[in-house]
Design brief:
single chain, alpha/beta, TIM Barrel, binds 2-phosphoglycolic acid
């Protein structure tokens, strides 16, 4: 059975005071609940690893460069993230694809860099509002999936996060039927390409997941958890989402 995963993406938020929230979150988890991953800014990675040490909460980065080292001012490589004790890294988030013009080929290279450093890649895909309105969602995200996921993708090295761009930070979420449709299609595409083993690849939904809508979203068979932005910043908001996932 796929282990459920509640992942938090702090984005460009968080200072040392948020580490108190993280310590609280880590202290209140049981070993039998869903897997939990928090992705703070790079500046807090090592601190976050130390305050969650020995707890069921894992730590991840939010992006990595495709190269291991080199003349890339301001960038951080996957081995550097791994050296902090982090175990995962988000790649291909729509904010990176938009703000930094990252292509599917760029994202695929980052996934491979993550794997080479021993990190799990949390690979994000999702359609824009225009693409949703134009009825091309399934085609667009299938293309993104295949172009961004390298050969060799498995349930051990990769998690796929489906995040409709128009749902991120807006308070708008797709209908449950739309979430089921996209996640079922993604599962079929993964199994078609990687074989029956792809049943173990976790598929997260992301985009305005909140305590009041999480339980409904988690009823979908091929939703194995969530990638949560705003509601991952406070333990009081994230915990009910973790609890809804545990109960699903
Ligand atoms: P949100 O962000 O939960 O604040 O909508 C989700 C994400 O971008 O990962």
């Amino acid at each position: 059975m796929r282990r459920k995963l509640a992942a938090g993406n702090w984005k460009m938020n968080g200072d040392a005071s948020l580490l108190g929230e993280l310590a609280q979150l880590a202290g209140q988890q049981s070993d039998t609940g869903p897997e939990i991953l928090i992705c703070p800014p790079h500046t807090l990675l090592a601190h976050a690893v130390s305050v969650t040490d020995g707890s069921p909460v894992g730590i991840g980065g939010q992006d990595c460069h495709a190269a291991e080292t080199g003349a890339h001012t301001g960038d951080v490589s996957a081995p550097m993230i791994a050296a902090t004790g982090a175990q995962a890294v988000i790649v291909g988030h729509s904010e990176r694809r938009t703000d930094h013009h990252e292509t599917n080929a760029d994202v695929r290279a980052k996934v491979k860099a993550a794997w080479a450093a021993g990190l799990t890649a949390i690979l994000c895909i999702g359609e824009s509002e225009d693409e949703r309105m134009g009825d091309s969602t399934l085609e667009i995200i299938a293309d993104q999936l295949h172009a961004s996921a390298p050969d060799g993708t498995t349930g051990d090295n990769t998690v796929i996060a489906y995040e409709p761009i128009w749902a991120i930070g807006t308070g708008r979420v797709p209908t449950l039927e739309q979430i089921i449709e996209t996640h079922d299609m993604l599962r079929d595409e993964l199994v078609g390409r990687f074989g029956p083993e792809a049943m173990t690849i976790r598929l997260l939904y992301g985009g305005s997941v909140k305590p009041n809508n999480a339980a409904d979203i988690f009823t979908a068979d091929n939703v194995d958890g969530a990638l949560v932005g705003g509601a991952s910043l406070a333990a009081a908001d994230f915990q009910p989402i973790i609890d809804a996932l545990a109960a699903s």
